[in-house]
Amino acid sequence: MAGMELLSWNVNGMRSIARKGFLDWLRHQSPDILCLQETKSRPEQLIIDLIEPEGYFTYWNYPQRKGYGGVALYTKHKPKDIQYHFPAPGLDLEGRVIIAHYPGFILLNVYFPNGKQGYTRLRYKLDFYEAFLDFIDSLKEKGKKLVVCGDFNTAHKEIDLARPKANAKTSGFLPVERKWLDKLVAHGYIDTLRLFHKEPGHYSWWDMKTGARDRNVGWRIDYFFITPNLVKNISGAFIMPQVTGSDHCPVGILLEIN
Question: Edge-to-edge, what's the strand order for the sheet holding 106-111?
Fold first, then answer.
């Protein structure tokens, strides 16, 4: 496990992305680790090439409700251990997490809740945020090296979306949601993209109904965060807006692990 490319992508449906050339893209891009969110599928609903692509071990987490949520992990390096839950009584029931333990770090692939369906879901999102931060803090305090990636469903700063003023009262950019990302950073977690790119215009999600992607009127809601003890191991961070097929695009890091 020397230099590795790690990617995270909300595919907005595994079966949908498969019809749009996902496997060809996977073979061409060939990331070492690929974290997927919003798979909306169980393995038994998928063709064998999606379940067992050549060169990869795959792991799946999904809720009881079909066609909803779900995360998956494609990895060339078999983890030492895999977890599908974190300690969050009553919160971690929607197939939102895969935790992979590798020799040099722990990877957490997370599909954080969306808060746009009303107060109940916003409350759930905020409770999930807090429980998750408590969990990763417990690992960080033990000196673990953490990589946390996925769809966070919140743009952090005004620089992270094209129209901040117009969306100030929209879930995904509410002050209470952004405050949690402030707290995440205050606890020492580092937004990898901003280590390398300070400028605006970097987005990972666009409203497809309005053709926002063509105009790059987007939001950055997909992230890779790391603990400080991994900063020296990060040699790059990037977004891949040229990759289509979903309303999100992949985001990634280059990680050097000896």
Answer: 81-83, 97-101, 106-111, 146-151, 222-226, 190-191
DSSP helix, strand, coil percent of the chain (3-state; round to 5) = 30, 25, 45
Q: What is the largest CA-CA distance in the chain?
A: 46
Domain count, the chain: 1
Give the structural domain span for 167: 3-256
pLDDT digits (tens, 9 = 90+) for 237-257: 999 999 999 999 999 999 998
- Nearest by Cα to 97 from 106, 113, 110: 110
Which secondary structure element, helix H or strand E, spans residue 157, and what is its range? none
The CATH number that applies at residue 7 is: 3.60.10.10
Q: What is the pLDDT of residue 250?
A: 98
The span from the CA of 217 to the CA of 206, in Å, is 7
Positions marked active-site:
151
Backbone angles phi, psi at 235, to 5 degrees: -110, 0
The pair of structure tokens assigned to 51 is 């379940």
Tell me: the pLDDT tens digits for 117-146? Answer: 889 999 999 999 999 999 999 999 999 999
pLDDT single digits (tens) 25-69: 999 999 999 999 999 999 999 999 999 999 999 999 998 888 789
Q: Give one DSSP letter per residue of 48-110, joined into a string.
A: HHHHS-TT-EEEEE--SSTTS--EEEEESS--SEEES--S-TTT--SS-EEEEE-SS-EEEEE
Q: How does DSSP classify residue 156?
A: -
Burial of 25 (0-12, 13-18, 19+ CB in 10 A): middle
Say whether pTM exceeds 0.85.
yes
pLDDT at 1: 61
